[in-house]
Amino acid sequence: MKTIFTALAPNLEADDVKRSLRLIFNPWDWKDESPVRTLEKEVAHKAGVSHGVAFESGRTALVAALKALPIKEGDEVIMQAFTCVAVPDAVVWAHMKPRFVDCDPETLTISVEDLRNKITPRTRGLIVQYTFGRSPDWSEILKIAKKNDLWIVEDCAHVIGGRFEHQTYGSIGHAAIFSFGRDKSASSVFGGVVVTNDDTIASNLRSVQHNYEQPAPLWIFQQLLHAPVVWFVKQTYDLVIGRIAWFFVRRLKILSRSVLPQEKAGKAPPFAFHRFPGALAVLALEQLKKVDRFNDHRLAINELYEKSITNISVKLPPPLKEGELPLRFIVKVENREEILTKARAQSIHLGDWYNAVVAPPGVDYDFFMYKKGDCPNAEDAATKVLNLPLDIHIDRSDVERVVSLLNTPQ
Question: Do 300 and 196 contact (CB within 8 A), yes or no?
Answer without folding.
Answer: no
